[in-house]
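Researcher: I'd like a candidate sequence for this fold, 309 residues long. If you have to choose between options at a position, lean toward the conservative one.
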């Protein structure tokens, strides 16, 4: 199924200094917003958002001499809604497929939340296509699995993930009252300065595009339902392979959805320079809560020829 609402005037085709277009990869069509020229930096949004989450970083990266591209993940924003393909291995192939479709030899991947989970996965599955890795508000997939199963505080913080396992009801709740729950989630996961109503309305409208809620939830259903299935066990075993590219791990100290304790320690899966950066006083969305500080940290690290451990 193609994206039902990705043309001019759609809730996701938002005007700005960037350009919009679609690229084909891994059997689907993906909407991207891009700016600048130079080495590719591919930005991957999390839940419950879409490419627009990176609206501050696109111009910052372009001004710093990078080709900045923010993509909508499969089933979200202006990208295709397909009936299947929402397991992390396939979603990671979407990402590396977009890198190839953009005509680039590799990319620095910057992923937030679910996008971070997929960025970790892509760096393990297609290491030659990932030049550097920056992950925001998301532990390594093996750390995520361990925390969700053995850390009661993280299990409680991630209660929304367990709630997604019910059929149909989560989708209905996400789109009820014009996506009110989307605004509530983003506000409650943010730090002391949550986004204003105009920003929340943008995310609410995007979630209300037909089929988006279902497609947004499907990756989380796989992540939980596969825990004891052969495909999930195989994926977890596959993720034992170390990440061998320089990695920047960014996290807000007040993140209520993904605890700092859960994310810290992911460096044990990185056999390359690894830098942990904790943003004091920020929540789950540091790239939106303090975009200037976040963008400066990211750009400086991307430009550092030898990021040290």
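Model: Candidate sequence:
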């Amino acid at each position: 199924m193609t994206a039902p609402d990705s043309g001019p005037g759609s809730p996701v085709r938002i005007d700005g200094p960037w350009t919009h277009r679609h690229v084909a990869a891994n059997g689907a069509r993906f909407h991207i917003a891009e700016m600048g020229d130079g080495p590719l930096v591919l930005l991957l949004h999390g839940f419950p958002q879409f490419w627009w989450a990176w609206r501050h970083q696109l111009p910052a990266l372009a001004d710093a001499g990078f080709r900045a591209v923010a993509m909508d993940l499969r089933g979200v924003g202006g990208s295709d809604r397909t009936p299947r393909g929402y397991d992390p291995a396939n979603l990671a192939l979407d990402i590396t497929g977009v890198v190839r479709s953009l005509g680039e030899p590799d990319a620095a991947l910057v992923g937030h939340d679910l996008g971070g989970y997929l960025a970790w996965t892509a760096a393990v599955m297609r290491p030659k296509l990932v030049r550097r890795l920056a992950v925001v508000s998301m532990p390594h997939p093996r750390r995520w699995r361990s925390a969700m199963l053995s850390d009661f505080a993280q299990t409680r913080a991630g209660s929304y993930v367990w709630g997604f396992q019910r059929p149909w009801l989560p989708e209905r709740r996400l789109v009820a009252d014009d996506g009110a729950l989307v605004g509530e989630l983003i506000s409650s996961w943010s730090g002391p300065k949550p986004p204003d109503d105009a920003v929340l309305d943008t995310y609410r409208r995007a979630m209300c595009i037909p089929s988006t809620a279902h497609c947004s939830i499907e990756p989380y259903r796989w992540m939980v339902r596969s825990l004891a299935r052969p495909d999930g066990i195989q994926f977890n075993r596959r993720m034992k392979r170390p990440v061998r590219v320089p990695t920047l791990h960014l996290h807000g100290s007040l993140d209520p959805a993904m605890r700092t304790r859960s994310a810290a320690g992911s460096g044990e899966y990185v056999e390359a320079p690894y830098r942990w950066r904790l943003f004091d006083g920020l929540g789950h969305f540091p790239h939106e809560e303090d975009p200037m500080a976040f963008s400066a940290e990211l750009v400086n690290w991307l430009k550092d020829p030898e990021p040290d451990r």
